[in-house]
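Holo prediction. Input below; ligand is L2XQQQDX.
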Amino acid sequence: MASMFDSAKQVYGELGVDVEAAFKRLDQIAVSLHCWQGDDVAGFENSGALDGGIQVTGNYPGRARNAEELRSDIDEVLSLIPGKKRLNLHALYAEPGKEKVSRDEIRPEHFANWIAWAKKNNVGLDFNPSFFSHPMMKDGFTLSSPDAEVRKFWIRHGIACRKIAEAFGRELGDTCITNFWVPDGYKDIPFDRLAPRERLRDSLDEIFAVEIDQNCNRDAVESKLFGIGAESCTVGSHEFYMGYAARNKKLLCLDAGHFHPTEVISDKLTSCLMFVDEVLLHVSRGVRWDSDHVVIMNEELKAIAEEVIRHNYDKRVHIGLDYFDASINRIMAWTIGARNMSKALLMALVEPAKQLRDAENSGDFSTRLALMEEIKTLPFAPIWNEYCERHNVPVGTAWIEEVKRYEKSVLAKRA
Ligand SMILES: C[C@H](O)[C@H](O)[C@@H](O)C(=O)CO
Ligand SMILES: [Mn+2]
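Structure of the complex:
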């Protein structure tokens, strides 16, 4: 008797889809897992409460309290997700040991444990300077602050981070993508929107003037519409960074939660990629004021994956995750979003692309719509399950039980 996978493969085959080729292509597309879901964006520095206009709500037990716990949780998450993965670190996650190191003086050796972990797990590392949760963020401003001393501090931080990222790339033989998100903004309506933007541009120019080996690190810049406490004007807006990235040959980071609620980043990819070489995605889910809910299998996630696959952006679009939820088991939160990302990519990879394109190109929009609707009920689950099985990760809902076991044996023991 044919297995469910064999039958499903045949159904897709009849539509001209090569499932084995889809598996092979998915194996090459990395998803960068954000380290900050495990500890509510706290980091190990203890320099203050989370700010920068982001907030983590919830108090589910089991938060990682130190680097060992965080790495153990990430190991658990990685064991539940099929396919190629990377890890995305924030500067907040430095481990300077007993030494107290100022954020503008962090160095690669403060990430030695992360590099060793990455080597052991055969994953690439990505990086982010942390322009928040620090006393040198003055009145909500860092790189665009009117205070030159404040700007200088954060410029040094940006440069230090690029050197760390370069070391990641060199040590791992895998290019690091460093993302610059700068939360600076005004709660109320500013008179002058130009001066802070000029200061941000100049600060970024200084940071990027330092030469870094492009094979080891490339830089991305991330815009935002608003943050909590920065509702009226965010200095690093979309237009600011679209222009900055295009002019300065940087990657543009599109965060799915950083736009107006009816705007979608899936529709921006083809436009942006005509004018910038590469894009970094922060796959997230905005819900009202929050830009960082756990990623679910909604229309937008599917559309993001479809855009990447349909236009062969595999090498030009870097996929990172960015969400945090402390109201549910954090390992579950991580895994739900990460599995969904891979699943959405696989769904896009088994689209009957030729048929859809032919229908569209011949002006047969009724067949295009009919096909798009029929695709929704094709036997996709056996295809996904087979992919998980081949990657030795739990199939179907089995991963939920595994997280429950981890919760009982590990998370519950954390005070
Ligand atoms: C930790 C932050 O979420 C992240 O660095 C940034 O990418 C962001 O999206 C802020 O809203
Ligand atoms: Mn983001």
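The chain is about 40% helix and 15% strand. That is the main takeaway for now.
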